[in-house]
Amino acid sequence: MSDEHGLLGGRFKRWLSTVGSRAWLQPIVSNLARVLAPRHRVGVFVAAFDDDERVLLLRHVLHPAAPWGLPGGWLQHYETPQEAARREFREETGLAVQVGPIAQLELEKEPSHITIVFVGRSGSGDMRLGAEIADYGWFARRQLPAGTAPFVEEAVEAAIRCHRRGAGR
Q1: Second CATH level (architecture) for the domain 41-167
Q2: Are 66 and 157 in contact (CB under 8 A)?
Q3: What residues pair up with 107 in beta bridges, in sequence order?
Q4: pLDDT tens column, 42-60
Q5: Considering only CA atoms, which of 159, 149, 147, 133 is closest in space to residue 54?
Q6: What is the chain's Cα-based Rg?
Q7: Percent of the chain beyond pLDDT 90?
Q8: Domain boundaries defined on the chain
Q9: Which label site among 26, 38, 82, 130 has the fewest CB atoms less than 10 Å from its CB?
Q10: For residues 136 and 93, is the Cβ–Cβ distance under 8 A?
């Protein structure tokens, strides 16, 4: 006896519906599902552009193999991706940022995580680099610095396409 989920899948679903219907077992089943559910960390980044369509890159101290990257970091519990992007941008640059549309969404394998790249526009003010940032620069897409990871190059290209569509160019 098999269904589209396989023999064990069908039996497991029937068992789960039987067990789940018993009120005293619901908290146990709920916690078991929470522990066994697949999880991914989520990284958020902002590709912020200036009026000359140059992108802001930061030289990260903690990434010696590919130090140049977009402002960003990890999503925290109960934080939306947009909130995390604004927080990380502010922590790393001291600047506020307007977070726009998603330019790229990817599953990265090492370490396993999901990355979200937003198009952004930084506000005015003085750049105040966070402790994990060694330097910064505004770069044209064809003049990205050595030490820029391939992921960042792809994200910049995607963000430029998205930025141009939004700007009506």
Answers
A1: Alpha-Beta Complex (3.90)
A2: no
A3: 114
A4: 999 999 999 899 999 999 9
A5: 159
A6: 21
A7: 54
A8: 6-36, 41-167
A9: 38
A10: yes
Residue 63 to residue 17: CA distance in whole angstroms:
47
What's the token pair of residue 93?
């640059």
Alpha-carbon 52 to chain mean position: 25
Q: In this predicted structure, what is the pLDDT of residue 14?
A: 73
With vertex at residue 81, the alpha carbon angle to CA 161 and CA 151, rounded to the nearest 5 degrees, is: 45
Amino acid sitting at position 146: A
Confidence bin at 16 (pLDDT 50/70/90): low
Q: Encoding tokens for residue 41?
A: 């960390």
* Sole residue written with tokens 């929470």: 34
Fill in the DSSP letter of residue 100: E
Q: What is d(CA 23, CA 20) in angstroms, rounded to the nearest whole number? A: 7
State the residue for tokens 């790229």.
Answer: 104
Adjacency order of strands within the sheet including 133-139:
68-69, 55-60, 133-139
Q: What is the DSSP letter of 141?
A: G
pTM of the model: 0.77
